[in-house]
Automatic annotation (TrEMBL):
<dbReference type="Pfam" id="PF25298">
    <property type="entry name" value="Baculo_FP_2nd"/>
</dbReference>
<feature type="region of interest" description="Disordered">
    <location>
        <begin position="68"/>
        <end position="87"/>
    </location>
</feature>
<feature type="domain" description="FP protein C-terminal">
    <location>
        <begin position="283"/>
        <end position="334"/>
    </location>
</feature>
<dbReference type="InterPro" id="IPR057251">
    <property type="entry name" value="FP_C"/>
</dbReference>
<feature type="region of interest" description="Disordered">
    <location>
        <begin position="1"/>
        <end position="55"/>
    </location>
</feature>
<feature type="compositionally biased region" description="Low complexity">
    <location>
        <begin position="32"/>
        <end position="49"/>
    </location>
</feature>
<protein>
    <recommendedName>
        <fullName>FP protein C-terminal domain-containing protein</fullName>
    </recommendedName>
</protein>
Length: 338
């Protein structure tokens, strides 16, 4: 392959180029010198400017510091004045608020005090009314107490009076029954009459050793009781002596016979034997007292309790003295002594 070769430059052109290159070099040298000069000048100017600027900065700093110090002093003075003014303003505002607060507080307290005074006044009025009521009640109480005292006195007097009447009535009733005999536990026989009852009494009299004639019997009958079949027989005799003999001989018979107590077989009555009891015909008051005396004797180890001529007696042991019981109080006293 053939090589492409550039034809050589002509010598004229080389010289021209050399001249041109020299010119360019001269110009470049001048430019370089100028540039160096300019750079040196610029460097000097920059250094001067830097120094000037540095001085300016120093002056500015010093002046700025002094300005700042003055400004701070002025600001501090102004702030101090401002704070002092604010303190006075806050104090005035605080005092105004306190005046309002105390004014409202005083007003509220006055209202409360007024309400309290009204309440106290109402309470005083109520207390006065209560005192009046208490005084009225106290007077009534005194009156009632006095009346109650008088009633108690009257009650005591009436009780004593009634007790006296009861004792007197019981005395007359007992006296009226002085010739009466009560016979218990005899069964009722069919078609029973006074004659049949009188016949039973005659049999009893002959058995115990004290004959009783039908003429000695003033009246005879049965009385009502809880027991329907064995209602008590009440016999009225002509004299107290006949009555006492009839009772005394009956007790002697029972004592002598021992276990062979007077019973229905002695009267030849049908049925199993039943004990027959003969005693005084006591009044209701004495009957109750006799019952209490018998219960007292059982509870307090008394061997004997009996009635005679409308009187009730207790005896502790054989040979000891007898104790007459007139009222229930006698039993209570005897209980306390024991």
């Amino acid at each position: 392959m053939p090589l492409k070769r550039t034809p050589p430059k002509s010598p004229r052109n080389v010289k021209g180029n050399q001249s041109t290159m020299a010119t360019i070099a001269t110009v470049e040298a001048q430019g370089t010198t100028t540039t160096k000069t300019n750079l040196t000048q610029e460097s000097s100017d920059a250094t001067a400017k830097a120094k000037s600027k540095s001085k300016s900065v120093l002056l500015h700093r010093e002046f700025g510091d002094s300005l700042d110090q003055g400004s701070e002093a002025l600001a501090s003075q102004r702030s101090k004045r401002k704070f002092e003014g604010d303190d006075h303003s806050d104090m005035r505002s605080f005092m105004a608020d306190m005046r309002i607060y105390f004014s409202n507080f005083t007003k509220n307290q006055d209202e409360k005090l007024l309400n309290l005074q009204e309440s106290i006044s109402d309470i005083k009025t109520q207390n006065a009314e209560i005192f009046k009521s208490i005084e009225f009640i106290s007077n009534k109480y005194d009156q009632l107490s006095e009346r109650l005292r008088k009633l108690e006195e009257e009650r005591g007097e009436n009780y004593n009076y009634i007790s006296a009447i009861e004792e007197r009535l019981d005395f007359f009733e007992k006296k009226g029954r002085s010739t009466y005999v009560e016979i218990r536990n005899i069964p009722k026989i069919p078609n029973e009459t006074k004659e049949s009852l009188t016949s039973l009494i005659e049999k009893i009299g002959s058995k115990v050793g004290v004959p009783v004639d039908h003429r000695d019997i003033k009246d005879i009958y049965r009385i009502n009781s809880k027991s329907i079949e064995n209602k008590p027989i009440i016999m009225e005799l002509n004299t107290v002596a006949i009555k006492n003999n009839f009772i005394v001989f009956s007790k002697k018979f029972n004592k002598l016979q021992g276990s062979e107590h007077l019973n229905t077989q002695h009267l030849q009555l049908a049925g199993p034997p039943k004990k027959i009891y003969i005693s005084d015909f006591l009044t209701p008051k004495l009957r109750r007292l006799f019952y209490l005396a018998r219960e007292f004797a059982k509870e307090n180890d008394f061997n004997y309790c009996w009635s005679s001529n409308g009187n009730i007696f207790l005896r502790k042991r054989d040979g000891s003295s007898h104790i007459r019981i007139n009222t229930e109080m006698d039993l209570k006293k005897l209980q306390n002594i024991r």
